[in-house]
Amino acid sequence: MPAPQEAHFGNDLSSNYPDVSVVIPAYNAAKTIGNTIETVLAQTVPAKEIIVVDDGSADDTAMVAEGYGPFVKVIRKQNGGPASARNLGVRQAAGEWIALLDADDLWAPDKLERQLRLVADPEVGLVHTLTDGQRAQVPTTLSFEQLWDRNWIVNSTVLLRKKAFENLGGFDETRDLISVEDYNFWLRLAASGWKILLCPEPLTQYTRGIGISSDTPRFYKAALCNINLLADNLSLPKRLVKRRISNIHAEFGRTALYNRNNLLARELLIRSFINYPSPQGFLLIGAACLPAYVLDLKRRARTLLSIIVSKTPMRSRTLKEFP
């Protein structure tokens, strides 16, 4: 941990850009939050302030953050989930822009500088970046329709205009939305007309948390709750809603199939097909009816093929040329 006098806010670059407040919700993050804070202090365009919201931690999270001195403001609260922690931090923030950061993620030194180059347009409400290792082709601008089909935005990549946050009333603190409260906010932001831009560089090191395969019921419930809330609040077309619900059933059905829970997979995939019939959905139902050993053979064959391709450059090119 650096001595407080070594950290600094303000250099020649910072005067050229609007003020940024960094908000870090933290729960039992004593082991990681120091490294996270240090990547903020190392920014080429310094933040105006860092606000750590300790969401009822049982460890030394707050003490570690306070060790950075007056450069880090620590707010303690009872545990209420990530949405309530973010809301409290943003409402206390003095910056025109809010950079969201989870307590176990890291930034490249020029992350804020590169994002701030894109905020001159007053209609821009959010700028996000790629994460390390991100493979998907992320659109440079995101419409509501693109976000509706998929959540392209990772929390710790986000630079958010505080005015946009205030216009929307912040993150929805409904307990059933925990794990998708961020996605709910991005969709409401896009629906309200704010522009969402991508800074197309991997400037955030993202630590993956619990995946849907390890807590399927909670994630499944949250995903459906989110879509139903938005459908009611935004008066969305029924066909759009049915298609998205179908995709959610299919996503969790594929996860269940991968985990060889064929009974649950069939149930979810049939629900998906009923909501939005498609040839792919029909094939997935068929796969869920196969014995587990057949699916295991297919998985092993795919793994073996991947190994062969990775170790044989000429063969790799041939496979790519002839899908």
What does this structure look like?
- The protein is of the alpha/beta class and 323 residues long.
- It has two domains: 18-205, Alpha-Beta Complex (Spore Coat Polysaccharide Biosynthesis Protein SpsA, Chain A); 216-290, no CATH class.
- Helix content is 46%, strand content 15%.
- The protein contains 13 helices and eight strands.
- It has helices at 33-41, 61-66, 82-92, 111-116, 144-149, 162-168, 181-191, 216-234, 238-258, 262-275, 279-288, 292-311, 313-321; strands at 20-26, 49-55, 72-77, 97-100, 106-107, 124-131, 159-161, 195-205.
- Strands 3-2-1-4-7-6-8-5 form an eight-stranded mixed β-sheet.
- The longest helix has 21 residues, at 238-258.
- It is globular.
- The termini are far apart.
Helical stretch tally: 13
The name of the CATH architecture of the largest domain is: Alpha-Beta Complex
Arithmetic mean pLDDT? 87
Low-confidence spans: pLDDT under 50, at least 5 residues? 2-8, 312-323
| Fold-level CATH name of the largest domain | Spore Coat Polysaccharide Biosynthesis Protein SpsA, Chain A
* Total domain count: 2
The end-to-end span amounts to 51 Å
Q: Would you count the extended β strands for me?
A: 8
**CATH homologous superfamily of the largest domain, by name?**
Spore Coat Polysaccharide Biosynthesis Protein SpsA, Chain A
Widest sheet: strand order?
Answer: 3-2-1-4-7-6-8-5
Major sheet description: 8 strands, mixed
Provide the descriptors you would attach to this structure in a database record.
disordered N terminus; alpha/beta; 13 helices; single chain; 8-stranded mixed beta sheet; 323 residues; 2 domains; Spore Coat Polysaccharide Biosynthesis Protein SpsA, Chain A
